[in-house]
Backbone:
């Protein structure tokens, strides 16, 4: 953040969740309504780790668009991010690990890597939020 004392709130997401990992979550605008299930269970809902992976990968693609635009590079229409979020446990402590595999077809590897590096270091809100908190690996594939 260039100046943490001066910022503009662009959007606030509001959800109401009941029942924890076996409950449901709904957004205040009604656009999201999802049943929740424990990871690896046979329940009929998604889990927080899947939602986190989807949110992070979507944010990362959008952030790459911002970075590519600043670099005067056209981001490929089929740019993709495969996100893997591990829910880990050590004794009574739970934590996350993440791997992002980024595909930028048609771009030279050096250009793709530069876009990914700047995106992860400076631009993606999820990358900034998790920095120093979880082990993250980002690869250009």
Residues:
């Amino acid at each position: 953040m260039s100046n943490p004392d001066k910022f503009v709130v662009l959007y606030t997401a509001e959800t109401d969740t009941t029942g924890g990992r076996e409950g449901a979550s709904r957004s205040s605008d009604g656009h999201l309504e999802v049943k929740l299930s424990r990871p690896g269970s046979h329940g009929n809902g998604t889990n927080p780790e899947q939602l986190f992976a989807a949110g992070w990968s979507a944010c990362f693609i959008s952030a790459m668009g911002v970075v590519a635009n600043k670099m005067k590079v056209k981001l490929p229409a089929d740019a993709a991010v495969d996100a893997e979020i591990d829910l880990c446990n050590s004794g009574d402590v739970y934590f996350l690990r993440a791997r992002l595999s980024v595909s930028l077809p048609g771009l030279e590897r050096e250009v793709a890597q530069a876009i990914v590096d700047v995106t992860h270091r400076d631009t993606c809100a999820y990358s900034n939020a998790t920095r120093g908190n979880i082990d993250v690996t980002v690869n250009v594939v």
About this structure: The two ends are 28 Å apart (CA to CA). The mean pLDDT is 95.
